Amino acid sequence: GGGELFKVAPFLQQAAKVLAGAKSPMLITRASGRDSGAVQPLVDLAELLGMPVFESSLGFVNFPQNHPLHARGDVEGTLPDADVVVIMEVDVPWVPKRTGPNEDATIISIGVDPLYSNYPIRGYRSDLTLAGSPKETLTALVEAVKQIGVDTIAAKGRIEQWSAAREKRIEAIAARAEAGKDQTPINKAYFSRELSKHLGDDTILLSELGVDTSQIEFITPGTTYAGSPAGILGWAIGASLGAKLAAPDKTVICTLGDGSYTFGVPSAGHIVSKIQNLPVLFIVWNNGIWNAVKSSAKNMNPAGVAASTDTWAFTNLDQECNYEMYCQASGGYGERVDDPAEVPAAIKR
User: Fold this and answer.
1) Are residues 144 and 228 in the same domain?
2) Rounded CA gap, 232 and 243, in Å?
3) Would residue 248 be called left, alpha or beta, if left means φ above 0 and alpha means ψ between -120 and 50 degrees?
4) Tell me, what CATH number does 341's domain have?
5) Measured between alpha carbons, how far is 224 from 272 in angstroms, rounded to an integer?
6) What is the CATH number of the domain that holds 59?
7) Is 297 part of any domain?
8) How far is it, in rounded angstroms, from Cα 109 to Cα 104?
9) For residue 161, what are the domain limits?
10) 146 and 12 part of one domain
11) Widest CA span of the chain, in angstroms?
């Protein structure tokens, strides 16, 4: 029972007391949704506390993104003022160079290996460390917090506050897509909005830099996956074929940049797709650049030589390359779309 659990888990009981008394709690995750059973306990804890849930990046469906307490990924405006910060199954909850928690805040770490002991260097503070399954840990925390009791009026106020913030964010996201609908080259926000109209419980999206995920609300576990933080470029082609093997009745959609598509060895991917009868919709965002390389260099050295001279070695690609022909060569259907007005019909095809 719960009482017996708390007797042998004093840190969990202490964490529950801290959360129950929090005035401005927040939670950051990346991969707690690896176990789909962890989603509902996280919803229960967030609603109980009026606690926003941030995703440092989207690895799985960790929390329904249509929920009023889903706060997307920008922690910079919230983290310094939070009095309790829960970091769960996330290796890089924030970038220390940009932001950090208040020194008086309590940091609670949750995860199978919450301190990432196999990482050679990782310097995130943890005041209370709860090692174990997120599903079981969250379930126990919900029970413990209920036994302690919370200020329900304050929690309700926080829910209303974050709900209003979410509505404003959604309006801005929608406006960005609408503003780009006639742009050439095709605007990624607009394209992503059009793609989102075709996504649901019967689809699986694997995105490797080829789509603006802020335009999409993932609600059901198992409808999207992203690559490991250990390395992503070249991951999605093979992963999408694996997803189709695992879920043959689902429509699998793989979105990539032109650089990551090249890293994924598309010729081999399309041949396997043909031979093994694994149909996947591959969408290649051809922006003529390895932007992952450029943006990483720019973020690490914003005042460096490359940034000051706007010279990015080994990042330029040929935007005229006909990537659709890789698919055609293996007997699949491929087309190139340059006109934004053709996007809705092309996605349907």
Assistant:
1) no
2) 16
3) alpha
4) 3.40.50.970
5) 22
6) 3.40.50.1220
7) no
8) 16
9) 2-165
10) yes
11) 66
The mean of the pLDDT values for the chain is: 91
- Neighbour tally for 305: CB within 10 Å: 8
The SS3 assignment for 214 reads helix
Give domain status of residue 292, yes or no: no
In sequence order, what are the residues at sequence separation of 6 or more whose Cβ sits closer than 8 angstroms to the Cβ of residue 151? none
Q: Which residues are paired to 199 by β-bridges?
A: none
**Same domain as 198, residue 158:** no
Give how far the C-alpha of residue 321 lies from the chain's centroid of Cα atoms, to the nearest Å: 30
Verify that 98 and 220 share a domain, yes or no.
no
Residues 328 and 239 in one domain: yes
Start-to-end Cα distance in the chain: 54
> How distant, in Å, are the alpha carbons of 38, 46, 203, 246 from that of 223?
15, 22, 6, 13
CA atoms of 141 and 132, how far apart (whole Å): 12
Q: Could you tell me if residue 44 is inside a domain?
A: yes
In terms of Cβ atoms closer than 10 Å to its own Cβ (0-12, 13-18, 19+), residue 149 is exposed
Tell me the backbone φ, ψ of residue 262, rounded to 5 degrees: -65, -45
Cβ proximity of 62 and 42 under 8 Å = yes
Residue appearing with tokens 């390395």: 231
In a shared domain, residues 188 and 145: no
Mean pLDDT of 204-225: 93
Angle at the Cα of 326 from the Cα atoms of 324 and 328, rounded to 5 degrees = 75
Same domain flag for 213 and 95: no
Considering only 174-178, 221-225, 316-320, which range has the smallest mean pLDDT? Answer: 316-320
Q: Is 149 left (phi over 0), alpha (psi -120 to 50) or beta?
A: left
Q: What mean pLDDT comes out for the span 212-234?
A: 88
pTM for the predicted model, two decimal places: 0.90
Is-contact 319 291, C-beta < 8 A?
Answer: no
Cβ atoms of 79 and 99 within 8 Å: the answer is yes
pLDDT for 3 equals 45
The verdict on 30 and 149 lying in the same domain is: yes
> How many structural domains is the chain composed of?
2
